[in-house]
Write a structure and sequence with these properties.
This protein has one domain. The chain has 3 helices and no strands. 46% of the residues lie in helices and 0% in strands. It starts with 29 loop residues before the first helix and ends in an 8-residue tail after the last helix. The chain is elongated. By secondary structure, it is mainly α. The structure holds zinc ion. Zinc ion binds next to loops.
């Protein structure tokens, strides 16, 4: 009985593969790539979703075969989401203390629910943008054999 084939053996180490000049391997501009990523659609073709669920990434784009699942986003999306959200949160906290507003428990609860919702949306957008950046840079996950 032989070992199952490793699907990474045939895959190129960088994306797009070197020496390919076909238009379909070209990536759009940085702004377009990041904008498409934040909208959670394929940064390369904009015709298919990046995610299969909340944060699970499709292994390859169903439209253009871009290797979305091989992009090592790792911890970058939570850092980016926290960096952006916590700056807005700090601004709100400063306003609360500056004007002496004392929210009730229900208002704190509503703000907490809104904060969780905003964080969940921001995390998804940050992960899409990170995958777009990695795809544009051609950085694939390193495969250790
Ligand atoms: Zn695509």
């Amino acid at each position: 009985m032989s070992a199952p084939p490793n699907r990474f053996i045939e895959a190129p180490d960088i994306w797009p593969p070197p020496g390919t000049s076909a238009p379909e391997t070209n990536m759009p501009s940085w702004g377009t790539t990041i904008w498409r990523g934040t909208r959670c659609i394929c940064p390369r073709c904009a015709k298919a979703p990046i995610f299969n669920g909340y944060l699970k990434v499709h292994p390859v784009c169903s439209s253009c075969d871009a290797p979305l699942g091989d992009m090592p986003a790792d911890d970058a999306p939570p850092y980016i989401a926290m960096f952006v959200i916590l700056h807005f949160l700090a601004f709100i906290v400063v306003l609360i203390f500056r004007y002496g507003w004392q929210p009730s428990a229900y208002e704190y609860g509503a703000m907490l629910v809104a904060l969780v919702g905003v964080c969940m949306v921001a995390l998804r957008m940050a992960k899409g943008a990170t995958i777009g950046i990695l795809l544009k840079l051609g950085l694939k996950r390193e495969v250790l054999n």
